[in-house]
Amino acid sequence: MITRKEIQLIKRLAEKKQRRKEGLFVAEGPKVVADLMGAFRPAAIYATSEWTAQNGAANILTEEELRRASLLQHPQQVIALFHLPSPIDRLPTAADGLTIALDGVQDPGNMGTIIRIADWFGIDHIVCSQDTADAYNPKVVQATMGSLARVSISYTDLPEYLGKYDGDIYGTFLDGDDIYATELGQNGLVVMGNEGNGISAATASHIGRKLLIPNFHTSSDGADSLNVAIATAIACSEFKRRNYVKKT
Q1: How confident is the model at residue 242 (pLDDT cuts 50, 70, 90)?
Q2: Beta strands per DSSP E along 32-168
Q3: For residue 247, pLDDT beyond 60
Q4: Exposed (0-12), middle (13-18) or buried (19+): which is 97, by Cβ within 10 Å?
């Protein structure tokens, strides 16, 4: 059973200020909840009897209660509230390998997909500007499909951080050098910009290696830009391909 007060709490956690106030975030669905259980401390779990029979103790909900409590259009057996993690006290350096930096990425779907991309390519850290979407927004959490458990997310003054970074800083620009014909290091920072405005001037001033993902369309009316999550996947793939060592 779930009380009205508990449902109201879940609904409030859709807002960033409420997540900070309560120190909690919401995750839903068997896969996402299972992955996050190993990385974050659960505060409460609400689930159907079907989920509970396979996974252990939870506050049992009827399907109707699940629908009323869920933030999803199509609820998925379980809703979990997790404690927000403590802020990371050390930002990544060049010694930490390849890192993604996000400058004002706003869309929760893009943010969640980029976290999932980082997980796929074995990138452990994402550093975000303060105006980048909150990684614990329920829409971001769902879009990561559990990858939030394996990728560390930091928020900071991005230009200040870049000014102190001790390695190569790459960024994607329309006037950059062809990524497929440019030397790429194994370590470094790859900056991806806002969906509409790209990388800000303050951040761009610290980027020493400008990269272009070329457009292979020969028509003048072809696509004029890439979605930031897709561009991130292409960039990460090319960096990793250059330094790929097959596991035996």
Answers
A1: confident
A2: 42-48, 59-61, 78-83, 98-103, 125-129, 152-156
A3: no
A4: middle
**Is the confidence at residue 66, as pLDDT, over 60?**
yes
Domain annotation covers residue 77: yes
User: What does the alpha-carbon distance between residue 128 and residue 135 come to, in Å, rounded to a whole number?
Assistant: 10
Q: Which amino acid is at 128?
A: C
Query: How far is Cα 65 from Cα 148, in angstroms, rounded to an integer?
Result: 27
**DSSP bridge pairs for 25:** 82
The pTM score is 0.93
182 and 203 in a single domain? The answer is: yes
* pLDDT for 133: 97
- Establish if 248 belongs to a structural domain: no
The long-range contacts involving 41-45, CB below 8 angstroms and separated by at least 24 positions, are 41/82, 41/83, 42/80, 42/81, 42/82, 42/83, 43/81, 43/82, 43/83, 44/6, 44/80, 44/81, 45/78, 45/79, 45/80, 45/81
DSSP state of 140: H
pLDDT of res. 224: 73
Q: How many helices (H) and strands (E) does the chain have?
A: 10, 10
Residues 152 and 108 in one domain: yes
User: What is the rounded end-to-end Cα distance, in angstroms, of the chain?
Assistant: 51
